[in-house]
């Protein structure tokens, strides 16, 4: 993969050219998440996933495991994000949530663009915002929301066995999962990561809004 300025320019140009979907969000709760590109650092510390030795500048995405004390989606994989407050843009929400959840404060110019909104079974319209974070060395989880922070190398999402598509009884569309180490991440988070991989990294026009989420994510 390309690194640093070349990668940032590539992702930014592909997002600028991407024709965003505009789903009907009437009656839905609006949210935004940050798909944050950062250095791999010292690794993701996940079973089955090679950990970098020393500081690595290979590109990675910042993901979290949600705190087990949360009332919704406790313990699940997530991208930093949350509800869009009145008067906020999705970009402002994504940057605010990055700082609140993982202690990463970034300026508005760190935003590279948007991917397609994803409407969930739980009644949210989630806007993915792609953000450039560089080294992002001083990450700190907010214990009220985040159990752990992980830098997942982008190369992990380029695996030949990704994505995993599983039939869902009663739906015409499969559940999308992204393998990571010996584990997996489910949609909606996985769908947004998959579109990032396809559009931003591989340059392939790919829609993901139709994919299902596992039933545990419907509430």
Sheet with the most strands, sense and barrel status? 8 strands, mixed
The assigned CATH architecture is Alpha-Beta Complex
Radius of gyration: 16 Å
**The CATH top-level class label:** Alpha Beta
Distance between the termini: 37 Å
Mean pLDDT: 91
What is the fold-level CATH name, i.e. the topology? Nucleoside Triphosphate Pyrophosphohydrolase
* Strand residues, percent: 25-35%
**SS-based structural class?**
alpha+beta
User: How many E strands?
Assistant: 11
What characteristic shape results from the CA principal axes? globular
Low-confidence stretches: none
Count of discrete domains:
1
The CATH superfamily appears as: Nucleoside Triphosphate Pyrophosphohydrolase
Total helices: the number is: 3
Share of helix, binned:
10-25%
Order of helices and strands: HEEEEHEEEEEEEH
Would you give an account of this structure?
- With 219 residues, this protein is α+β, with helices and mostly antiparallel strands.
- It has a single domain (4-159), classed as Nucleoside Triphosphate Pyrophosphohydrolase.
- It has three helices and eleven strands; from the N terminus they run H-E-E-E-E-H-E-E-E-E-E-E-E-H.
- The chain has helices at residues 4-16, 90-102, 189-201; strands at 29-41, 56-66, 77-78, 81-83, 111-114, 118-119, 124-134, 146-153, 164-166, 175-180, 183-186.
- The strands form two sheets. Strands 1, 2, 3, 4, 5, 6, 7 and 8 form an eight-stranded mixed sheet that branches. It has a three-stranded antiparallel sheet with strand order 9-10-11, covered by helices on one side.
- It is globular.
- The chain starts with a helix and ends in an 18-residue tail after the last helix.
- Keywords: Hydrolase, Magnesium, Manganese, Metal-binding.
- Residues 28-180 form the Nudix hydrolase domain.
- Belongs to the Nudix hydrolase family.
- This is Coenzyme A pyrophosphatase.
- It comes from Pseudaquabacterium pictum.
